[in-house]
Amino acid sequence: MEFKEALARLGIQKLNNLQEQALAAFPGGKDLLVLSPTGSGKTLCFLLPLIRLLAPEQAGVQALVLVPSRELALQITDVFRSLQTGYKVAAFYGGHAVTTETNTLREPPALVIGTPGRIAFHFRECHINAQNLHTLVLDEFDKSLELGFRDEMAAIIASLPNLRQRFLTSATAGSDIPAFAGFRSGHILNFLAASAVQPDLQYRLVSAAPEDKMEALYDLLCLIGREPVLVFVNHREMAVKVSEWLIDAAVPHGIFHGKLEQQERELNLARFRNGSVRILVTTDLAARGLDIPEVGAVVHYQMPVNREAFTHRNGRTARMSASGTVYLVCTGAELPEWIDVAAEPLERSSLPPLPPPEWETVYASAGKKDKLSKTDLVGFFISKGGLSREDIGLIEVKDQMSFVAIKRNKVSKLLQSVGNEKIKNKRVRFEIAH
């Protein structure tokens, strides 16, 4: 099988049906639109064909992937690097140092992945030479349009004189492809209607008076217990308000919205992924496209603005044949008419406070740029920190920092043990990540 070794590095033995069809259809001289649910493997749908199109002897940027969020840019970049193709890749996005990006472009990568705002900036400043850029991917293109990037996307595409092929993806049916995309009538792979297996979701209605809504959320989170849960709100101001209330109630949690600094966003996602927090309060930014784990429950603390948002939020649970529960926290007003599900009322009850998570996240002030690997960190913590392999959980190595999940009862002793030690002949700062 083509790409067998590369896929094995991702722990994948076989492509799914969607990925097989995308690989067969693109590149084939025609543009391609892929419609499929969140979590169906769209990233490999375009990365694998891209590898076929890249030429090792060709200088400059050859392909561009536009995405709606910086997290998605980093996620796709990590997947591409894991494939170990030999091609250079770079991610450009708001909140990232411009000087770092311009330095990278002095020896241009074959593949650039980024958000429309930052990529448009580089084109305006003539940092990117598009003469050899032949392939464009608009991943979750409807989400980028929804976030207000229409002008930036149009300007970028107008700056690509030698574009030969386009690959568009979306998790939503019925989204109009803007004329500026230049999408020629080509292949359309629609796996939305055929996402054959309907998710096994249970819907529960939590009623509360407006002044009692926060307490109702607290009781609900205690009821959900140790299950990972996403608490969705509509605006970052409400995310902050809910987070502050949970802090006062001593409930460990993370927060995620578009105005957080990049390091804080990465930290909160890492803590949720590794189990250091089991609750993530978030806007719809986490409803699609992000690499976050399967969650047992979704809580709509505020009702979403439309059916599409409702579907995407709920899609974060009951994936891959699992089951999940969706909770609707309602203050007495009728549910929007497009929420046409049978939600069983949930009786509120007072339960013991949530126990602390088993894991704590330790921050390390070094990452890929320092040639640091997961293996280095495991060996260091075992030899210098006195840990066993079972004391170490999920490890995420970023460009300039790393996050390591450590058993909570081992963290204090670990930090004391490694405080004056060097790793790979470099002094690295270790501390609890909050």
**Shape call:** globular
In CATH, the topology of the largest domain is named: Rossmann fold
CATH homologous superfamily annotation of the largest domain:
P-loop containing nucleotide triphosphate hydrolases
State the share of residues found in helices, binned by percent. Answer: 25-40%
Supply the CATH architecture of the largest domain: 3-Layer(aba) Sandwich
Please tally the helical runs, counting DSSP H or I stretches of 4 or more residues. Answer: 14
Strand content: 15-25%
Number of strands: 20
Q: Determine the mean pLDDT.
A: 88
The largest pleated sheet is described as: 7 strands, parallel
Rounded to an integer, what's the Rg over CA atoms?
Answer: 23 Å
Name the CATH class of the largest domain. Alpha Beta
- How far apart the termini lie comes to 44 Å
Please tell me the total number of domains: 3
Provide the structure class.
alpha/beta
**Low-confidence segments:** none
Widest sheet, order of strands: 3-4-2-5-6-1-7
Offer a few descriptive terms.
single chain, alpha/beta, Rossmann fold, Alpha-Beta Plaits, 3 domains, seven-stranded parallel beta sheet, Helicase, hydrolase activity
